[in-house]
Write a structure and sequence with these properties.
mainly alpha, 2 domains, 5 helices, 80% helix, elongated
């Protein structure tokens, strides 16, 4: 994987040399998230499962319009997981 990180760094440097405004904006975002991108290149593991669960919980919470108690939300989430 070390080689892939090297390729990533070379690509960043070459892309920056092009000096294209839109590409530079894109590179700025990549540079802000560089550590996360390097981790994705280096490791096989992600937090996708946790992110999916959080998204599911947020969606369920929105459908309840904030009118339910924590206990009701908990029961509904447990029911949903059991019956999907």
């Amino acid at each position: 994987m070390h080689r892939d990180l090297y390729k990533f760094d070379i690509w960043l440097k070459n892309a920056a040399k092009l000096n294209i405004r839109e590409l530079n904006n894109f590179l700025g975002g990549i540079k802000r998230d560089k550590k996360a991108i390097e981790n994705a290149i280096t490791y096989r593991y992600t937090n996708a499962l946790a992110e999916g669960s959080v998204n599911k919980l947020k969606t369920l919470k929105k459908t309840m319009y904030g009118k339910a108690s924590f206990e009701t939300l908990r029961k509904k989430l447990l029911w949903y997981e059991k019956n999907k």
